[in-house]
Amino acid sequence: MAKPRHLDHAPIREAIIDIQVTTADGSMRAVQSLVDSIAGGFSSRIDMWHNSVGLTIDPSGVASTQTAQSKIGVRLDAPPHVLQVKTTGLTFSRLAPYEDWDQICGEAKKYWDIYQKAVRPSEVTRVAVRYINSMPIPAPLKDFDAYLTCPPEVPPDLPQSISSFLQQTVIVDGASNQIARVTQALEHPPSVSVPMTILLDIDVMQQKSFDADGPAMWEALAKLRDFKNRIFFDYITEETAGYFV
Fold it and tell me: 115-172: per-residue pLDDT in tens?
């Protein structure tokens, strides 16, 4: 594991704050009105839809399918920021270059205040922090245990050369009711001149009821970010951390 500290060149491809809520019927009208009021500050907008497919078999054994589509929100882009305004909640993303937690949290709070006044969710049901890290592997390529504390393993009697891997682990902290989904993957370069990249995707969440306008939700998000930091430094080696100081 690596020593936890600030990394001036942290390998963060995307940092995400996600808040899920319960809302009343008709909330899509409130979402649409909210989006119309702020869309001028964004360069693009894309409608988000929920699609469902049902299968029915009648007594004679004849099957038929039914499809339905409903609008659930709008995605707004203003790079390096992405905002998803949905009937089920709000998601705010900061793309690279990443600044710091205070910046992303401050921006998310700004849009959350607008959201909760317009949509009036009855309660917050889930909060999450997700950081997608993109870590180039310098040449010459070493064993993966030079970069990761939990690298992919191949049985010793088999060839040891690995060209791709995808590994996911779900970590449950029963004491704090926090759950982390940690995904490690090897991303292939678009050309031989570009180094391979290890993706370390850390999605930390807490399923709990919060007041929509209270401070407890933001305190929980800050603790989730702390848990994310612990996971990040525990999953990488000191050599890996040294590339991003």
Answer: 999 999 989 999 999 999 999 988 777 789 999 999 999 999 999 888 889 999 999 9
- In terms of phi and psi (left: phi > 0; alpha: psi -120 to 50; beta: otherwise), the region of 41 is alpha
Tokens at 16, concatenated: 């995400």
With beta carbons less than 8 A apart as the criterion, state whether 134 and 183 touch: no
Write the DSSP assignment of the chain as a string of letters: -PPP---TT--EEEEEEEEEEE--TTHHHHHHHHHHHHGGGSSEEEEEEEEEEEEEE-TTS-EEEEEEEEEEEEEEEETTEEEEEETTEEEEEEESSP--HHHHHHHHHHHHHHHHHHH--SEEEEEEEEEEEEEEPPSSP--GGGTBSS-----TTS----S--EEEEEEEETTTTEEEEEEEEEEPPSSTTS--EEEEEEEEEEEEEE-TTSSHHHHHHHHHHHHHHHHHHHHB-HHHHHTT-
Q: Minimal CA–CA distance to 234: which of 128, 168, 148, 133?
A: 148
Between CA 62 and CA 139 the distance in angstroms is 60
For the chain, what are the domain ranges?
A: 12-242
Q: What is the pTM of this model?
A: 0.92
